[in-house]
Amino acid sequence: MTWLNPAAWFALVAVAAPLLIHLLVQRRAERFVFPTLRFLRPTPLMAIRRHLLEDPLLLAVRAAIVAGAVAAVAGPLVVTRARQRAWNQRVVRAIVTTEETPAASSRSPAFRSSEFRGPSIADGIRRARDWFDRSPPARRELVIAAPLAIGSLSSADLASLPSDVGIAFEPVGSLPPTRSTGYGRVRSTAGTIDREVTLTGAATSVRDVATVARASAGDALPIDVVASAQARPLVDAAIAAVLTQRVWSPPSDRRARLIVADARNVDAARSAGVPTPMEPWMADAIARITRDTDVQQAAARVTGVPLDDRFSTARWQVIAVSAASRPLVAAGTADDRLVILSGASPDEPLLPILVRALVNALAVVPDLAPLEVVRIADAQLSAWSRPAREPATPRVDAIESDDRRWLWLAVIGLLTFETSLRRSRRARTAPGEAEETARVA
Question: Between 322 and which of 75, 328, 425, 433 could a Cys-Cys bridge form, CB atoms 3.0 to 4.6 Å apart?
């Protein structure tokens, strides 16, 4: 037996109420009629309270009424074989599709079915999972009806589903044989260049479309570099090396400041501008630099570090450490810009690697997943597919019917019996009182 609301059992203390009523209720003293009271000596009156149960049967019935009501509120559910078989014979189906999908699933009718159409398959799976939690007990099945292009679905999207939920795929719609679209802008020694990407089957090709602007000292990078006069030639050489490799071109409203700190300017770097609130793009850029394996490996090879633990305060966030596990690269915000502070020497290989990572982190990299023209392999879809299993114990708010109605019927029967007991007791007491009064009179 399963209790859908077990917390209701705390109300079982109310069973003590009938017992207290029977013990504490004021009883009327019995009257004895005498022919005369003149031969009795007056004595002071004393209050006497009786603690004996006069009607144990009535008390037991009233306690059973309270206990039955508490058990009914607790929600008993007896999962019998017949009930489990009935749950297992019906199907609750969620159909996940995308906005561009022309038609939904055409499977056999289900006990309950709902379609989740949205911008992505992952979004539909999340909403379907929440809907499953609110659905009545049944075999749960998720059907993904979409073009199923590579990149539109991953194992992580399906991992959030409970293990008893079945997964099936229905490739719907068609994918074009080829697609071409703009692929952002890059910065190089030649200037800012527009690019175009073409997807044809399993092949991907990128070509330069046009050079928007020639590179100059003012617009080569959207980064203000702060360094000492002695370090400036090394910084310029690092920037030139980065531009030869081509880096993404960040939007004009995303600016950064790179401070190359050494023994001469590290104290000034601690107060680099007025701290400002961190915007979402800044936090995303910091996370991308932190995940850059080239930055982390280059930082781990640096030995001498002028930074100290004061750069681990709330204003600064350490994103790379040196070989001695001391702060080497820290990030913060100032004057509405992202500030990256490097404690490595300018002649270390870390500087050009950090510049490249910073510029790419500021940019908005185009997502090619929506443009994919190749379907997910059938072998992969088969590995992800699984049948729906027997439903587990359902949630409280998903139960259609339980067994509490039988307890409520029992409570009503006990209430009827309790009323009958009280009336019979009064009927037995009333004739005796009338007969005693008539005899004395």
Answer: 328
